[in-house]
Amino acid sequence: MNHLQQKIIKLKEEKNALILAHYYQTMDIQEIADHVCDSFAMAQLAHTAKQKLLVICGVHFMAESAKILNPDKTVLLPVLDAGCPMADMIVPDDVLALRKHYPEAAVVCYVNSSAAVKAVSDICCTSSSAERIVRTLPEKQIIFIPDRNLGAYIATKVPEKEFIFHPGWCPVHDCITVLDVQAAREKHPDAKFLAHPECQGVVLNFADFVGSTAEIIDFALKSDCSDFIIGTEYGVTEHLAKLAPYKNFFPLTSTFECEDMKKVKLSDVLTSLETGQHEMKLSTDEINAARNSLERMVGV
User: Fold this and answer.
1) Taking the alpha carbons of 84, 88, 89, 91 in that order, is the dihedral positive or negative?
2) Which ranges of 33-147 would DSSP assign to H, the alpha helix?
3) How far is it, in rounded angstroms, from Cα 206 to Cα 180?
4) CB–CB of 264/258 below 8 Å?
5) What are phi and psi of 195, to 5 degrees?
6) Nearest partner of 200 among 252, 257, 148, judged by Cα
7) What confidence score (pLDDT) does residue 300 get?
8) Tens digits of per-residue pLDDT, 223-275?
9) Which terminus of the chain, N or C, has fewer Cβ atoms within 10 Å?
10) Among 48, 103, 121, which residue's Cα sits nearest to residue 294?
11) Do 110 and 136 form a contact (C-beta atoms < 8 A)?
């Protein structure tokens, strides 16, 4: 470990802080985290954490979610403008308009969304929990927001329900094309293609496995195969390469990188621990309004 990592670990222990990092973070950030996880596990870990100081190495909605689930804890986001373009594609008025048009529908809100949008939703989900959550709901109509690609994928898994989508998407995953897949397969003909459901359906049709970041990692580690094309953010490829150096992991494209996730640097984490930089603050009303949909998610 370098000197910055050592300083962070020492300070983390002194302050009894918990550092949670998403799989899309750079490897030096992953190495100093107490847990490296997807957004669902991050929400669960934040919800059950004994520490009173949480450092979220991820993007804004993740820190918001941690604060909503832990209103009495201090939640730090090392880089304030680490956002999520998908989350910005929907506002509460969009949800309310859909509710008015489909009054019998349940609103299932992907966790990649603001606290204000969560507040007008019935239940949150992540890519790993979406199918399970939709199946638990008694409503036959599902308003799925904001990711049209994840929603369309879940609709294929639960055809007995009617889905209404909001036209949001992840710019990193949505831009992947069939040509990208064909090029990767030509280069690595023996590799299994593992894809994230935020990709378009035409891309998912070519996948050997579709799953969340955590599910992709689990599949690759347990599989008897040795070569894999990783159809999600490059951080997952790096994470797998470290966990299983005896296997080969290839990013689907060289541009598969989330700029917002990569904004967090070691120096930002250290400064955040030293100074309390960028504490996530939400009003009691904001927390109470959004808490139900998140608590329902982690409880399912």
Assistant:
1) positive
2) 39-48, 60-69, 92-101, 115-119, 130-136
3) 11
4) no
5) -125, 150
6) 148
7) 60
8) 999 999 999 999 999 999 999 999 999 999 988 999 999 999 999 999 999 99
9) N
10) 121
11) no
Q: Mapping DSSP to helix (H, G, I), strand (E, B) and coil, where does residue 7 land?
A: helix
CA 64-16-258 angle, 5° bins = 40
Beta strands in 191-286 (DSSP E): 192-195, 209-210, 227-231, 248-251
Distance from C-alpha of 46 to C-alpha of 298, rounded to nearest angstrom: 10
- Tell me which residues of the chain have a pLDDT lower than 70: 300
Residue 120 main-chain phi, psi, to 5 deg = -105, 20
Residue 215, C-beta contacts closer than 8 angstroms, at least 6 positions apart: 128, 209
Specify whether the CB–CB gap between 256 and 234 falls below 8 A.
yes
The predicted structure's pLDDT at residue 39? 85
- Secondary structure (3-state) at 264: coil
Q: Residues 51, 54, 55, 57: is their CA dihedral positive or negative?
A: positive
Instruction: Give the pLDDT confidence score for residue 44 in this predicted structure.
Output: 87
Amino acid occupying residue 188 = H
Percent share of the chain, pLDDT over 70: 100
Residue type for 169, please?
W
Tokens representing 157 are: 């898994």
Residue 225 sits at φ, ψ, to 5 deg, of -75, 160
Q: Are 198 and 170 in contact (CB under 8 A)?
A: yes
User: What is the identity of the amino acid at 8?
Assistant: I
Q: What are phi and psi of 253, to 5 degrees?
A: -140, 160
pLDDT recorded at residue 298: 83
> Residues 28-38: pLDDT tens digits?
999 999 999 98
* Positive or negative: CA dihedral 123, 53, 170, 37: negative
Nearest to 178 by CA among 199, 147, 155: 199
Cα distances (angstroms) measured from residue 205 to each of 39, 156, 209, 261, 267: 24, 11, 10, 27, 41
**Residue 35 contacts residue 21 (beta carbons within 8 Å):** yes
Do you know the residue count of the chain? Answer: 300
Structure tokens at 152: 């369309």
